[in-house]
Amino acid sequence: MNIQPSKQLHSTLSTWEVRDNRNKLVGTFDANKDKTRDKYDKLMDVAQIRNIKNDLFDLRESIKGVFQKHEDWQVCDRAMKALSQTKDTIIELDEIIDHIKQS
User: Fold this and answer.
1) How many CA atoms lie within 13 A of 90 on its CB side?
2) Predicted confidence (pLDDT) at residue 3 exceeds the cutoff of 50
């Protein structure tokens, strides 16, 4: 998993970025100001959830490939259910991320 402060911003050594597994910026924190590590911990939680979300997006794309390979209605029906479940899970993960950011 690629969840760690990645590169320094500006010229200071105390400001760091946290990026998800698709190298998208989750947020920044200042190590000198975040003495209790609260902001860092929140960013790491958000990054971890975004990584799970990204993996679910990849899974959804793989499931969509099932439709192209199979004409069996039972396989397609199960694939449709799996797509629906992953979509619902992604929505729930978005709500968790929003809650973490607001807390």
Assistant:
1) 14
2) no
